[in-house]
UniProtKB/TrEMBL annotation:
Its EC number is 6.3.5.-. It is an enzyme of class 6 (ligase). It comes from Sporomusa sphaeroides DSM 2875. Heterotrimer of A, B and C subunits. This is Aspartyl/glutamyl-tRNA(Asn/Gln) amidotransferase subunit C. Allows the formation of correctly charged Asn-tRNA(Asn) or Gln-tRNA(Gln) through the transamidation of misacylated Asp-tRNA(Asn) or Glu-tRNA(Gln) in organisms which lack either or both of asparaginyl-tRNA or glutaminyl-tRNA synthetases. The reaction takes place in the presence of glutamine and ATP through an activated phospho-Asp-tRNA(Asn) or phospho-Glu-tRNA(Gln).
Length: 96
């Protein structure tokens, strides 16, 4: 399948994109180059190649989310500029 300038113009119109005649021509050339490369890839023999989602072996590096003892409240508030009723007190940022 070959993409021509009219195809690009139609998609641009549907997408409400304004393009110059030079841009329409350039995108048609670029899209055809992409399709030609996809055709080359489609000709490769991939029998016996497992489908993959990533090219690198990735693993989750996050630890399990477990409840653990935390910093005592008094110690957490020890260096707070201002505290009230056991909580950090911060400046009001919204009117209302």
């Amino acid at each position: 399948m070959k993409i021509n300038r009219q195809d690009v113009e139609t998609v641009a119109l549907l997408s409400r994109l304004e393009m110059t005649p030079e841009e329409l021509e350039a995108y048609a050339v670029q899209l055809n180059a992409i399709l030609e490369y996809a055709d080359i890839l489609n000709k490769l023999d991939t029998k016996g190649v497992e489908p993959t989602a990533h090219v690198l072996p990735l693993k989750n590096v996050m630890r399990p989310d477990e409840v653990k003892p935390s910093l005592p409240r008094e110690l957490a508030l020890a260096n707070a500029p201002e505290a009230e009723d056991g909580y950090f007190k911060v400046p009001k940022i919204m009117e209302g």
